[in-house]
Amino acid sequence: MHPLSPFSIPHSFRILTAGVAVALLAGCAHQQTQSTAETKTYDAATPLEITPEPELVRNEYRVITGPNPPRTGIVDPDVYNQDLIPVEVLRTGRYQLVTTRAPLGQRHLLEQTIHVRIPPSIASTVGDGMRYTLQNTGFSLCSGQENDQRLLFNSPLPATHYALGPMPLREALQVLAGEAWELEVDPVRRSVCYQQRDVRTVESWDLVYPSSGEVEAGRGDEQ
Question: What are the residue boundaries of the structural domains of the chain, listed by start?
């Protein structure tokens, strides 16, 4: 047999071979194009995955002090240091029971209920209204020697404060002074006084992470 020459190969076989070669070349080109597209997509998404650096943000908080705590603990047992007091009752009638414990207003004089109608002809200043409210309560008002106390006591008494109660004495004294003043009690002398509230500003620092949009906006400004 004679060896096959290029001219002896059938025409259909040559067409089939050429088609396979073209398909292989097209597949390689498509794979290369897809790889390039994936690389571009990954490169475009890479900046979004960068973690932004945190920033220190300063915050301010207001701290307001409270009234002075009472000083007790001399008499034992001390009813003022007992949170839960058992209620003891005494039968005074067939359908009537009376507790044998002192009421709250008797144990804590600032908790006694008052109902006051201040005559406008007697009281014209805040100090006058306080002194009239303290009548028969066991407490007295301090002299108010400091400048800020004299400013409070000499201020005109609002018309809405001429009628107080029924409410606890503690609340009435706070209402008469207003939110800018702190009620102070001397349990030994049984006197009440006022000081301006100690409003202090406390600083704190927090870490705040900016959002991705803010990071992209910052990069655009730099460019």
Answer: 9-48, 50-62+201-222, 66-197
Contacts with 152 (C-beta within 8 Å, 6 or more apart), sequence order:
126, 127, 144, 177, 181, 194
Query: Strand pairing of 191-196 and 140-141?
Result: parallel
Cβ contact 181:152 at 8 Å: yes
Q: Return the sign of the alpha-carbon dihedral for residues 41, 43, 46, 48.
A: negative
For residue 146, pLDDT over 80 is answered with: yes
Pairwise CA distance, residues 123 & 137, whole Å: 18
Give the C-alpha separation, 37 to 31, whole Å. 10
8 Å CB contact between 163 and 119: no
pTM of the complete model beyond 0.70: no
Q: What percent of the chain has pLDDT over 70?
A: 50
What letter does residue 96 receive in the DSSP assignment?
A: E
